[in-house]
Amino acid sequence: MVARHVLEFPGGYTRTTGPVIGRFLSELRARRIVGVRTREGRVLVPPLEYDPATGEPVTGEYVEVGPAGTVTTCAWVEEPLDGHPLDRPFAWALIDLDGADTALVHAVDAGDPKALRAGTRVWPVWRDRPTGNITDISYFVPEVTKIVSNVRTEYRLQAGGALRVFLEGVRRGVFLGGRCAACDKVYVPYRLSCPQCGNAIPETIELPDTGTITTFAINNLPDPRAPEVPFVSAYILVDDADIPMIALIGDVPAHEVRQGMRVKAVWVPEGERTASMANVRWFAPTGEPDRELP
Ligand SMILES: [Zn+2]
Fold it and tell me: What Å distances lie between residue 106 and 116, 121, 179, 276, 286, CA to CA?
Protein backbone atom coordinates (compact mmCIF):
# COMPACT_ATOMS: atom_id res chain seq x y z
CA MET A 1 0.00 0.00 0.00
CA VAL A 2 1.53 3.29 -1.11
CA ALA A 3 0.12 6.76 -0.71
CA ARG A 4 1.55 9.61 -2.78
CA HIS A 5 1.72 13.02 -1.05
CA VAL A 6 2.91 16.42 -2.18
CA LEU A 7 3.98 19.12 0.28
CA GLU A 8 3.74 22.47 -1.39
CA PHE A 9 3.15 26.10 -0.43
CA PRO A 10 1.32 27.62 -3.38
CA GLY A 11 2.97 30.95 -4.13
CA GLY A 12 6.02 29.98 -2.09
CA TYR A 13 6.90 29.91 1.59
CA THR A 14 7.59 33.40 2.88
CA ARG A 15 9.82 33.99 5.84
CA THR A 16 11.68 36.96 7.17
CA THR A 17 15.44 36.95 6.95
CA GLY A 18 16.27 38.84 10.09
CA PRO A 19 18.90 41.60 10.00
CA VAL A 20 21.98 39.41 9.55
CA ILE A 21 20.93 37.14 6.67
CA GLY A 22 19.04 40.13 5.24
CA ARG A 23 22.26 42.11 5.09
CA PHE A 24 24.06 39.20 3.43
CA LEU A 25 21.36 38.89 0.75
CA SER A 26 21.17 42.67 0.19
CA GLU A 27 24.92 42.76 -0.34
CA LEU A 28 24.63 39.91 -2.86
CA ARG A 29 22.21 42.07 -4.80
CA ALA A 30 25.09 44.57 -5.08
CA ARG A 31 27.41 41.71 -6.07
CA ARG A 32 29.32 41.76 -2.81
CA ILE A 33 29.78 38.83 -0.47
CA VAL A 34 29.94 39.74 3.21
CA GLY A 35 30.52 37.87 6.40
CA VAL A 36 30.05 38.96 9.97
CA ARG A 37 32.75 39.16 12.61
CA THR A 38 32.34 37.22 15.82
CA ARG A 39 33.45 38.58 19.18
CA GLU A 40 36.50 36.35 18.88
CA GLY A 41 37.36 38.00 15.58
CA ARG A 42 36.45 35.18 13.18
CA VAL A 43 34.51 35.99 10.02
CA LEU A 44 31.43 33.81 9.41
CA VAL A 45 30.25 33.43 5.80
CA PRO A 46 27.34 33.24 5.32
CA PRO A 47 26.84 35.35 8.42
CA LEU A 48 24.91 34.01 11.40
CA GLU A 49 23.29 35.81 14.29
CA TYR A 50 25.12 33.74 16.87
CA ASP A 51 28.62 32.34 16.85
CA PRO A 52 28.10 28.55 16.57
CA ALA A 53 31.35 27.99 18.49
CA THR A 54 30.42 30.01 21.61
CA GLY A 55 26.70 30.79 21.32
CA GLU A 56 27.52 34.49 21.74
CA PRO A 57 25.75 37.06 19.54
CA VAL A 58 28.00 38.22 16.70
CA THR A 59 29.29 41.78 16.45
CA GLY A 60 27.58 44.10 14.01
CA GLU A 61 30.71 44.32 11.90
CA TYR A 62 30.24 43.11 8.33
CA VAL A 63 33.32 42.26 6.33
CA GLU A 64 33.50 41.96 2.58
CA VAL A 65 35.13 38.65 1.60
CA GLY A 66 36.13 36.98 -1.64
CA PRO A 67 34.97 37.19 -4.30
CA ALA A 68 37.52 34.46 -5.03
CA GLY A 69 38.05 31.50 -2.78
CA THR A 70 39.68 28.13 -2.40
CA VAL A 71 37.85 24.81 -2.67
CA THR A 72 38.36 22.74 0.46
CA THR A 73 36.32 19.72 -0.63
CA CYS A 74 33.94 18.88 -3.45
CA ALA A 75 31.51 16.27 -4.77
CA TRP A 76 30.96 15.78 -8.50
CA VAL A 77 27.35 15.61 -9.78
CA GLU A 78 27.39 13.72 -13.08
CA GLU A 79 23.62 13.87 -13.64
CA PRO A 80 22.09 17.09 -12.30
CA LEU A 81 18.54 16.97 -10.94
CA ASP A 82 15.72 19.40 -11.70
CA GLY A 83 16.35 21.81 -8.87
CA HIS A 84 20.12 21.96 -9.34
CA PRO A 85 21.78 25.23 -10.29
CA LEU A 86 23.31 23.79 -13.47
CA ASP A 87 21.87 21.51 -16.11
CA ARG A 88 25.28 20.03 -16.93
CA PRO A 89 27.67 18.02 -14.76
CA PHE A 90 29.04 20.19 -11.97
CA ALA A 91 30.41 19.98 -8.45
CA TRP A 92 29.09 20.92 -5.05
CA ALA A 93 31.99 22.43 -3.22
CA LEU A 94 32.90 23.90 0.13
CA ILE A 95 34.61 27.17 -0.71
CA ASP A 96 36.79 29.15 1.68
CA LEU A 97 36.26 32.68 0.40
CA ASP A 98 39.27 34.93 0.82
CA GLY A 99 39.04 36.61 4.22
CA ALA A 100 36.43 34.20 5.63
CA ASP A 101 36.95 31.71 8.44
CA THR A 102 34.12 29.39 7.43
CA ALA A 103 33.35 27.76 4.11
CA LEU A 104 30.37 28.39 1.86
CA VAL A 105 28.64 25.60 -0.08
CA HIS A 106 28.09 26.43 -3.72
CA ALA A 107 28.13 24.95 -7.20
CA VAL A 108 31.29 24.96 -9.30
CA ASP A 109 31.12 24.69 -13.06
CA ALA A 110 34.47 23.06 -13.75
CA GLY A 111 33.53 21.17 -16.92
CA ASP A 112 35.52 18.15 -15.89
CA PRO A 113 35.95 16.55 -12.44
CA LYS A 114 39.70 16.50 -13.05
CA ALA A 115 39.70 20.31 -13.20
CA LEU A 116 38.68 20.53 -9.55
CA ARG A 117 40.23 19.41 -6.30
CA ALA A 118 40.95 20.68 -2.82
CA GLY A 119 43.04 23.80 -3.29
CA THR A 120 41.53 24.88 -6.62
CA ARG A 121 40.97 28.63 -6.75
CA VAL A 122 37.47 29.62 -7.86
CA TRP A 123 35.67 32.85 -8.75
CA PRO A 124 31.93 33.57 -8.76
CA VAL A 125 29.86 34.04 -11.91
CA TRP A 126 27.04 36.44 -11.10
CA ARG A 127 23.58 36.26 -12.63
CA ASP A 128 22.53 39.16 -14.81
CA ARG A 129 20.03 40.74 -12.42
CA PRO A 130 20.77 39.99 -8.79
CA THR A 131 17.63 39.87 -6.66
CA GLY A 132 19.05 39.27 -3.20
CA ASN A 133 19.27 35.49 -3.21
CA ILE A 134 22.13 33.04 -2.87
CA THR A 135 21.44 32.15 -6.52
CA ASP A 136 22.64 35.65 -7.46
CA ILE A 137 25.90 33.77 -7.65
CA SER A 138 25.00 31.43 -10.54
CA TYR A 139 27.98 29.26 -9.74
CA PHE A 140 31.74 29.46 -9.25
CA VAL A 141 34.32 28.68 -11.93
CA PRO A 142 37.98 27.71 -11.58
CA GLU A 143 40.44 30.57 -11.74
CA VAL A 144 41.85 31.37 -15.17
CA THR A 145 45.22 29.65 -15.34
CA LYS A 146 45.74 29.47 -19.08
CA ILE A 147 44.58 31.09 -22.28
CA VAL A 148 44.78 29.98 -25.88
CA SER A 149 46.04 32.58 -28.34
CA ASN A 150 46.13 32.18 -32.06
CA VAL A 151 49.69 32.55 -33.19
CA ARG A 152 50.63 33.16 -36.78
CA THR A 153 53.59 35.12 -38.03
CA GLU A 154 54.30 35.78 -41.62
CA TYR A 155 57.84 36.80 -42.48
CA ARG A 156 60.21 36.90 -45.40
CA LEU A 157 63.61 35.40 -44.96
CA GLN A 158 66.26 36.84 -47.18
CA ALA A 159 68.76 34.06 -47.67
CA GLY A 160 72.24 35.48 -47.17
CA GLY A 161 75.31 34.39 -49.11
CA ALA A 162 75.93 30.99 -47.57
CA LEU A 163 72.30 29.96 -47.22
CA ARG A 164 71.61 30.97 -50.82
CA VAL A 165 74.44 28.71 -51.97
CA PHE A 166 73.12 25.84 -49.85
CA LEU A 167 69.54 26.24 -51.12
CA GLU A 168 70.68 26.40 -54.73
CA GLY A 169 72.29 23.02 -54.04
CA VAL A 170 69.05 21.73 -52.55
CA ARG A 171 67.27 22.85 -55.73
CA ARG A 172 69.61 20.52 -57.65
CA GLY A 173 69.09 17.74 -55.11
CA VAL A 174 72.42 17.90 -53.28
CA PHE A 175 73.45 19.00 -49.81
CA LEU A 176 76.32 21.48 -49.95
CA GLY A 177 78.63 21.66 -46.97
CA GLY A 178 81.93 23.30 -46.30
CA ARG A 179 85.18 22.00 -44.88
CA CYS A 180 87.26 24.17 -42.59
CA ALA A 181 90.81 24.21 -43.90
CA ALA A 182 92.19 24.75 -40.40
CA CYS A 183 90.34 22.20 -38.24
CA ASP A 184 89.00 19.91 -40.99
CA LYS A 185 85.42 20.01 -39.65
CA VAL A 186 82.67 19.65 -42.26
CA TYR A 187 79.58 21.80 -41.80
CA VAL A 188 76.21 21.38 -43.45
CA PRO A 189 74.37 23.59 -44.35
CA TYR A 190 77.32 25.36 -45.96
CA ARG A 191 78.57 28.39 -44.01
CA LEU A 192 81.11 31.07 -44.68
CA SER A 193 83.24 30.60 -41.59
CA CYS A 194 84.06 27.92 -39.08
CA PRO A 195 82.21 28.49 -35.78
CA GLN A 196 84.91 26.62 -33.92
CA CYS A 197 88.12 28.26 -35.13
CA GLY A 198 86.78 31.27 -37.03
CA ASN A 199 88.49 30.37 -40.29
CA ALA A 200 86.86 31.36 -43.59
CA ILE A 201 85.42 28.44 -45.56
CA PRO A 202 85.86 29.47 -49.17
CA GLU A 203 84.56 26.41 -51.01
CA THR A 204 81.58 24.13 -50.92
CA ILE A 205 81.70 20.37 -51.03
CA GLU A 206 78.88 18.08 -52.11
CA LEU A 207 77.75 15.71 -49.43
CA PRO A 208 75.75 12.51 -49.84
CA ASP A 209 72.03 12.59 -48.98
CA THR A 210 72.40 9.69 -46.58
CA GLY A 211 73.09 9.86 -42.88
CA THR A 212 72.59 8.47 -39.39
CA ILE A 213 70.00 9.52 -36.79
CA THR A 214 71.77 10.91 -33.72
CA THR A 215 68.76 12.00 -31.64
CA PHE A 216 65.06 12.25 -32.31
CA ALA A 217 61.73 13.34 -30.86
CA ILE A 218 58.29 11.81 -31.34
CA ASN A 219 55.77 14.60 -31.89
CA ASN A 220 52.09 14.21 -31.16
CA LEU A 221 50.88 17.58 -32.43
CA PRO A 222 50.03 17.77 -36.12
CA ASP A 223 52.44 19.60 -38.43
CA PRO A 224 51.52 20.41 -42.03
CA ARG A 225 54.89 19.08 -43.24
CA ALA A 226 54.63 15.79 -41.37
CA PRO A 227 53.30 12.62 -42.97
CA GLU A 228 51.05 11.74 -40.02
CA VAL A 229 50.71 11.98 -36.25
CA PRO A 230 52.71 10.92 -34.36
CA PHE A 231 55.70 11.85 -36.46
CA VAL A 232 59.41 11.95 -35.77
CA SER A 233 61.80 14.85 -36.12
CA ALA A 234 65.47 13.94 -35.86
CA TYR A 235 68.99 15.20 -35.96
CA ILE A 236 70.71 13.46 -38.81
CA LEU A 237 74.45 13.31 -39.13
CA VAL A 238 74.83 13.45 -42.90
CA ASP A 239 77.63 11.16 -44.06
CA ASP A 240 81.00 12.95 -44.15
CA ALA A 241 79.63 15.87 -42.08
CA ASP A 242 80.52 16.71 -38.48
CA ILE A 243 77.35 18.60 -37.54
CA PRO A 244 73.87 17.05 -37.65
CA MET A 245 70.94 18.57 -39.53
CA ILE A 246 67.35 18.55 -38.31
CA ALA A 247 64.71 16.91 -40.53
CA LEU A 248 61.55 14.84 -40.48
CA ILE A 249 61.66 11.06 -40.60
CA GLY A 250 59.07 9.29 -42.73
CA ASP A 251 58.07 5.95 -44.23
CA VAL A 252 58.55 4.23 -40.87
CA PRO A 253 56.32 3.90 -37.75
CA ALA A 254 57.41 6.40 -35.11
CA HIS A 255 58.12 3.69 -32.52
CA GLU A 256 60.66 1.99 -34.82
CA VAL A 257 62.87 5.06 -35.16
CA ARG A 258 66.09 4.75 -33.17
CA GLN A 259 69.50 6.30 -32.68
CA GLY A 260 72.01 4.98 -35.18
CA MET A 261 69.35 4.23 -37.81
CA ARG A 262 70.55 4.81 -41.38
CA VAL A 263 68.38 7.15 -43.44
CA LYS A 264 68.31 8.75 -46.87
CA ALA A 265 66.61 11.92 -48.08
CA VAL A 266 63.33 11.50 -49.97
CA TRP A 267 63.32 14.29 -52.56
CA VAL A 268 60.23 15.68 -54.21
CA PRO A 269 60.12 15.08 -58.00
CA GLU A 270 62.59 17.26 -59.93
CA GLY A 271 59.86 19.27 -61.64
CA GLU A 272 58.48 20.45 -58.25
CA ARG A 273 61.74 21.60 -56.71
CA THR A 274 62.41 25.13 -55.57
CA ALA A 275 65.33 26.63 -53.68
CA SER A 276 63.92 25.42 -50.35
CA MET A 277 64.24 22.60 -47.83
CA ALA A 278 60.68 21.60 -48.80
CA ASN A 279 62.45 19.68 -51.58
CA VAL A 280 63.33 17.10 -48.96
CA ARG A 281 60.03 15.50 -48.03
CA TRP A 282 61.72 13.68 -45.15
CA PHE A 283 64.42 11.12 -44.50
CA ALA A 284 63.44 7.45 -44.75
CA PRO A 285 65.26 4.36 -43.45
CA THR A 286 67.64 2.74 -45.92
CA GLY A 287 67.49 -0.69 -44.30
CA GLU A 288 71.28 -0.77 -43.80
CA PRO A 289 72.58 -2.01 -40.43
CA ASP A 290 72.60 0.69 -37.72
CA ARG A 291 75.78 2.69 -37.41
CA GLU A 292 77.55 3.33 -34.17
CA LEU A 293 77.70 7.02 -33.41
CA PRO A 294 80.96 8.73 -32.63
ZN1 LIG B 1 87.66 25.25 -38.15
Answer: 13, 13, 71, 59, 62
